[in-house]
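SEQUENCE WITH STRUCTURE:
===
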Amino acid sequence: MFEQNSPFRIFLLHLIAILFVILNVSDIRIAGLSHLLPLFDLMMIFYFTVFKSVFAVWFVFLLGIWNDALNGNPLGATALCYIILIRLFSLLNSKMMIRENFSQIWKQFIFFCFLFLLMKWAILSLFNGVLYGIATPLVQFVLSAVLYVLMHKFFDYLSLKLLEDR
């Protein structure tokens, strides 16, 4: 119906990323665990920016601003974390070329996620003048690291259906 790499397919991929940001801030009431969702948006940003180089930096910046606006955080905090880490990991990947082995990609994501949560925790703590607890980021880190394996397969499927030639 739509040819590969058509603007519609790329738009659809961007729309899915926006929906993941909304999912991460949705008020899901599961025994008081509404803030303990895995970072699905971070997983998608890592996969389609660092691993596949599909999302442009401007789009990731807008996702960060959107995330901050929905969460009530200072605008730009999440975008700053995203962009610094994307630049760092893109530079490391260009030097080391470790994109083929899934275990290496997974380790990269774990480190990416850890640094993201640490940076965001530090920025929000400094901005608000309060030292926030680490329990929520720690649980988010563990959930995100474990679920990345499944999400990577899902992103592989999206990539195959929306970006690759048949």
